[in-house]
# Entry
Amino acid sequence: MTAMTPPPAPGAGLPAATVYATWRRILREPPLADAMFDPAVDDETLGRRFGLDEDGIAAVRAYAATPKPTRMFILNYRFRMTGSVQNALETAAPLTMRALKGKGLDLRMLAEGFLQADHWQDDGPFVVGYCARILDHLADHPDTGSPAGLRDLIALDRATAGLLMRLADTPPEPAVPAGHVGLTGRAVAVTTSHDLAPWLRSAAALGRADLPARPAAYLVAMPDLAAAPKVSALPLRAADMLAALAGGPLTPEAVFDRIGGAGTQDAALLGKLADRGAVVGA
# Structure
């Protein structure tokens, strides 16, 4: 009996890097995933429409040769990614997540909209950076235009995510000359056009009613990455002090000059900022 040599599997011999890159594109580009199963789309059209070379087309055809498992993996990937958006918000932006739920938004549709705009990128374990992009997407999304204050809340969570990423990337080592005040880099101030206090006092109220249109400021502080971010209300004048220090350390007198002259409570206010870990020195 003569041994039979099995026919080569579809895609056999293709460069591994091409196969991997093509599979990533199939997962992240729904039009390509649709076209690969469309019998009316020939190889020439596939290559022209999606910029695929000969090996890329061969890789697509190899995956299309096993439609059932390929479709299953694509669906599983999208299902997992849609869930990852909600997980990221729960982990790194819990206030925003609760407000979206409080408003009664369709979180799955919101997640799919973000993922389409974000090209279905998978950040793996890097949840905070992923969440920052979600918050950027939500910041001017039509569904977050109401209730009043929701976008301010998103900005607060976005500032927190930014603080976390900065602390992780480059732990601050403030160098402040004697007699000067400087930022610690472990806190961030956020000014808002609505007073978030009613929502910060009661999680059950988040996203359920308009907030007062009243300027306010908040401080997010983290002594280190192991600590949970602490959010507290901040006098607007204190937020101005922190903004004045953004360019570098200043003497207390220079800080006061930058915000329009010293007030009777300014020295005490600067001391409170130091107590909360926002400034150091003087």
